[in-house]
Amino acid sequence: MSFSVGFPNASGVTIGGQSSATIKALNEAADDAAKQALGLDEKNDGTVRTGPVGVQKDEKKPDNSNQSIAVKVLLKRMQELQEQLQKQQQQLAAAEAASYPTEEARTATVLEIQNQIGDTNGSLAQVTGNLVKQLAKESSSGSVINTTA
Q1: pTM of the model
Q2: How far, CA to CA in Å, does 45 sit from each of 35, 118, 120, 127, 139?
Q3: pLDDT tens figures, 90-116
């Protein structure tokens, strides 16, 4: 048995007494504040970096690596999931800081975001496992892996 609910005027729905536009604006403001606090640049060139956040600033190098298309796709997907995870963590922080009419509403909202974070973490772990398998397969087949940073 399935059950679905539709809202004839979805823009009229409020969460914690706030409209969806207000919540979206708060999330965007929290996202901007987090980027400023972390020292992240507004421009994202799509490269994956390791080390302290906001410290490394190097010029973009042309992609002339020997990586297979599968590895490149997995790396791109990993980056997308990491960005999604970061946004969800910011949403969680905003949800925890927001005021709600009842404690049940707050708990439900926070749990939903935590479930999304769990799903994203699971997807990230799966992509990481596939990437490790692909890299192991390529290294055993004799192809060269470029390890220069």
Answers
A1: 0.52
A2: 15, 27, 22, 21, 28
A3: 999 999 999 999 999 999 999 999 999
